[in-house]
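QA checklist item 7 of 12: single-chain prediction sanity check.
[x] sequence parsed
[x] length recorded as 228
[x] structure emitted
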Amino acid sequence: MPRMKGSLFSSEHVVRPAVEAGMTVENAKCIKYAVNGEMHARQGAMIAHRGSLQFERKGQGVGGMLKRAVTGEGLPVMAVRGQGEVWFAHEAQNCFIVDVEPGDLFTVNGRNVLCFDASLSYEIKTVKGSGIAGGGLFNSVFSGQGRLGLVCEGNPLVIPVSAQHPVYVDTDAVVGWTANLQTSLHRSQSLGSMLRGGSGEAVQLMLQGEGFVVVRPSEATPQKAQQH
């Protein structure tokens, strides 16, 4: 292989062969998956691959079609099968990995899902306490055992939630939360305040119980939400 010089070709940027199958963070903006069988990923998230791999779109199911009908969003997934390496990214957003253990449930917004092990299963559910009239708050609930790759605009905030200290989050900024948290919509302004213009943050998602909520340091604008 020809030897190139310069900072672009330093070890910081040149990828190394995978030493074992599965998911790793290649760099802050990209996840690498060494495939030996099957894995799943967000459609359109593949940026490069090598080896003997096949890509196949998967249906969203009834829940996914309902979410898309209500909110314009969904979790379009593709299966990747074979042996090889594949790299995933989305709009240069920061990448993170969540390890899901048996008995765990991790609820995450579909726009933040990048890729996941085939051993994980997910359902698209309405957020409890929101209802259809609450803006169509749908999320993907992951369970099983495996790894889940996420993307986030900026570095996420992981906020502990306790029974004594519930957490209120902007519905456009929430990424996900752990099991055993109860959700409901909380109105922080009176009707009179909203009629006068208010602060623009009239309704938040309240989380109670014991666990963690993940929040991104930005809000999803209507245009970006539709693109995702």
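[x] summary fact logged: Confidence is low (pLDDT under 50) at residues 62-72, 131-136, 190-199.
[ ] second reviewer sign-off
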